[in-house]
Specification:
By secondary structure, the protein is an alpha+beta fold. Helix content is 34%, strand content 9%. A 6-stranded antiparallel β-sheet has the order 1-2-3-5-4-6. β1 and β2 form a beta hairpin.
Length: 296
């Protein structure tokens, strides 16, 4: 029987009990969770390490202390990645070094959804509001998130660029300029689409997993794994706090911790339509919005 404390935790979780309990240790054969369509979001060559061992993915030069837990399960699941990132395929662990591990989220809530996992032992199990009070550590997180946002933007352009009206306008202008005899004036060309504006990032005010992690994802919120009201609101309300907002004031931190953002009305991120608590209707609506967003 669940304790009252456990029930209280679950009430604030942005993910389901099934998602929390899913194992992260790579099995000898693919598990049901790993073979599920919603987990098939491996990046292209742009985000995946090359076949040659990259400098970033070389084994750590620093001796690492043995992990406190030999099995990472439930809320401790992300610890498996920081303890032994080399144990996972590149479809799951995108890159790692002594300081950070970057993975594809096992249950992505957008077409692209990454997790940045810091590896500093003194920060691993801290609440993000506490961990990000350290100015030096915060700066390192912000810089790493900026890099990942650029990578996600490039991957969005690779996947959806051919569908974008703004990108097509620039391509047509470039083709006309190249076919002429005059020198190309870059300042007169259409700017194309700024894919960086289609990326969001941050931490959750009530993280469901014990290990510190930062979300970096495309803003479409369109995924097979987007299945509940709390899934959507955890990325569409102030429940998600951008790392650029840190350090938070004590008053703002308290406000965000107490607010029930997950129970907010469901509001479409693209057009602003309010669906109240009708998640199924929002989900159907988001399918159409996803297609329109790609064409922008």
């Amino acid at each position: 029987m669940a304790t009252k404390a456990h029930e209280a935790d679950m009430a604030h979780d942005a993910i389901t009990g099934e998602e929390i309990s899913s194992t992260t240790i790579p099995p000898s054969t693919p598990s049901k969770a790993q073979s599920n369509d919603c987990a098939r979001n491996a990046f292209s060559e742009l985000l995946s390490p090359s076949k040659k061992t990259s400098k970033q993915n070389k084994p750590s030069a620093k001796p690492r202390s043995p992990p406190a837990l030999t099995t990472f399960a439930g809320r401790a699941g992300l610890g498996a990645y920081t303890a032994a990132p080399e144990s996972f395929p590149t479809s799951r662990v995108i890159s790692y070094n002594d300081d950070f591990v970057t993975i594809n989220d096992l249950y992505p809530k957008s077409s692209i959804h990454l997790l940045l996992l810091p590896r500093r032992p003194d920060k691993l199990l801290l609440h993000p509001f506490e961990a990000l009070q350290d100015p030096e550590f915060l700066s390192s997180i912000q810089q790493e998130v900026k890099k990942l946002r650029l990578l996600v933007a490039k991957e969005l352009q690779r996947r959806f660029g051919k569908l974008s009206m703004k990108e097509r306008e620039r391509e047509i202008a470039m083709e006309k300029a190249l076919s002429g005899s005059e020198e190309i004036n870059e300042s007169k060309l259409p700017p194309g689409r700024d894919w960086s504006k289609d990326v969001i990032s941050g931490i959750h005010t009530h993280p469901s997993m014990a290990h510190l992690h930062i979300h970096v994802l495309s803003r479409d919120r369109y995924s097979e794994c987007m299945r509940h009201r709390k899934h959507y609101n955890s990325f569409a309300t102030e429940f998600l706090v951008d790392v650029e907002e840190f350090p938070l004031t004590e008053q703002d931190a308290t406000r965000r911790m107490k607010a029930g953002f997950l129970n907010n009305d469901l509001v479409c991120w693209w057009c602003g339509k309010n669906f109240g608590n009708k998640f199924a209707k929002l989900k159907h609506h988001l399918e159409g919005e996803f297609e329109e967003w790609k064409k922008e």
